[in-house]
């Protein structure tokens, strides 16, 4: 098998899991947040900087790399690791979410999805087999099955048909996968906000015996309490001896709540996207650095953070960079946001080890300004 999940401990207070995920490019301590490097780069960050902040694994996007520069070129370069100079683990998604986000630019059939490129309008067809061909060429340690991500809200019949197609596509992905000894193919659970459909999807997908499982179709616009409710009844149905991945979630509250509900892996563009817009995650809540009140504030972005940005620069300087539209502004706040989330997950792992994750949540939420 390409990967192996090792369960180290379950928190007595919350039931959250502490584990290790063994991959061809190194061991990942879980629960973990994965920075997103959509186009074979985490925006504004070098691989060396990602290592400085201890990013254990990053995510890249099949849809975008298929369109540009093309998976054949990446394969010629020696695979994604060599192409982007990253020697730690990589996960690639299947491109399904991006394709389904195209709306009127795509047409779904049993065979796959016909879509027009958001770059130049050219016509393409992505099937389960094609998605796996692209992911095999990219060479990531963990690759995702091609699924249909139902929108929110969606009626029950649509979601049922969608999840059943996802199961059929998962079988085709498994059959098409050429590198099971070096790349772990994860199945994806769908089913929308319907408990019985989630249960059906878990049963169908786990019967295919993938080395890991993702929960898809959440964080797509539904209220957070509804997402937590779906996790409450879905996650316990997944095998305990395999990793569980909640796709597209990256706000501090959702990370902690997800871990409490048994999730091991998360990814999201949130910390890098809001950084480029001038918003920082700090130990005492969000800071919108462009606000005028920081014009003469010479204190660090986060008084409790020891990242490169907070050790060296003031809020006043960061605000100046944003107002002057300097590239360094995005770099410095991105560095901080990713450091903050990766450090949060480190603290979460320590809290699990010490059987106090619920206490940790209460303390963190109080400082950050979240309601319990």
Q: What can you tell me about this protein's structure?
A:
There is one protein chain. The chain has 372 residues and is an alpha/beta fold. Helices cover 41% and strands 19% of the residues. It has helices at 47-52, 62-67, 71-76, 80-84, 96-100, 128-138, 156-176, 195-206, 224-234, 252-260, 270-276, 308-312, 315-323, 327-353, 357-368; strands at 4-10, 17-23, 26-30, 32-35, 58-61, 90-93, 106-108, 113-116, 123-126, 142-144, 184-189, 213-215, 244-246, 265-268, 279-282, 285-288. The strands form four sheets. It has an eight-stranded parallel beta sheet. Strands 1-2-3 form a three-stranded antiparallel beta sheet. A three-stranded antiparallel beta sheet has the order 7-8-9. The longest helix is centred in the C-terminal third of the chain and has 27 residues, at 327-353.
The helix-and-strand class reads alpha/beta
Strand order of the largest sheet: 4-14-13-12-11-10-6-5
Q: Please give the alpha-carbon distance between the first and last residues.
A: 40 Å
Q: What is the C-alpha radius of gyration, as a whole number of Å?
A: 20 Å
Give the SSE map.
Blueprint: E1 4-10, E2 17-23, E3 26-30, E4 32-35, H1 47-52, E5 58-61, H2 62-67, H3 71-76, H4 80-84, E6 90-93, H5 96-100, E7 106-108, E8 113-116, E9 123-126, H6 128-138, E10 142-144, H7 156-176, E11 184-189, H8 195-206, E12 213-215, H9 224-234, E13 244-246, H10 252-260, E14 265-268, H11 270-276, E15 279-282, E16 285-288, H12 308-312, H13 315-323, H14 327-353, H15 357-368
Helix pairs in contact: 6-7, 7-8, 10-14, 10-15, 11-14, 13-14
């Amino acid at each position: 098998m390409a990967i192996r999940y090792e369960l180290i401990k379950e928190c007595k207070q919350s039931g959250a899991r502490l584990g290790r995920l063994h991959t061809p490019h190194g061991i990942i301590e879980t629960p973990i947040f994965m920075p997103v490097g959509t186009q074979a780069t985490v925006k504004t960050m070098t691989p060396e900087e990602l290592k400085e902040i201890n990013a254990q694994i990053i995510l890249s996007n099949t849809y975008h790399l298929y369109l540009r520069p093309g998976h054949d070129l990446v394969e010629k370069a020696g695979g994604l690791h060599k192409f982007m100079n990253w020697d730690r683990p990589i996960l690639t998604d299947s491109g399904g979410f991006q394709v389904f986000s195209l709306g009127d630019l795509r047409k779904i059939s049993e065979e796959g999805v016909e879509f027009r490129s958001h770059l130049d309008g050219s016509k393409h067809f992505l099937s389960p087999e094609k998605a796996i061909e692209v992911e095999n060429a990219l060479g990531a340690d963990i690759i995702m099955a091609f699924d249909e991500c139902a929108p929110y809200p969606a009626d029950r019949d649509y979601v049922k048909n969608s999840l059943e197609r996802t199961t059929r596509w998962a079988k085709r992905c498994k059959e098409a996968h050429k590198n099971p000894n070096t790349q772990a193919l994860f199945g994806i659970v769908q089913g929308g906000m319907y408990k019985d459909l989630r249960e059906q999807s878990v049963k169908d997908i786990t019967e295919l015996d993938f080395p890991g499982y993702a929960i898809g179709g959440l964080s797509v616009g539904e209220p957070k309490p509804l997402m937590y409710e779906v996790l409450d009844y879905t996650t316990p149905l997944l095998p305990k001896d395999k990793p569980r991945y909640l796709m597209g979630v990256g706000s501090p509250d959702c990370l902690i709540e997800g871990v409490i509900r048994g999730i091991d892996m998360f990814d999201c563009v949130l910390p890098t996207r809001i950084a480029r817009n001038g918003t920082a995650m700090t130990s005492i809540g969000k800071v919108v650095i462009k606000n005028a009140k920081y014009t003469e504030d010479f204190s660090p972005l986060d008084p409790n953070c020891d990242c490169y940005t907070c050790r060296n620069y003031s809020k006043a300087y960061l605000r100046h960079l944003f107002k002057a539209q300097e590239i360094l502004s995005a770099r410095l706040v991105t560095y901080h946001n990713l450091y903050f989330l990766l450090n949060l997950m480190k603290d979460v792992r320590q809290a699990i080890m010490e059987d106090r994750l619920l206490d940790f949540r209460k303390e963190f939420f109080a400082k950050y300004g979240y309601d319990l």
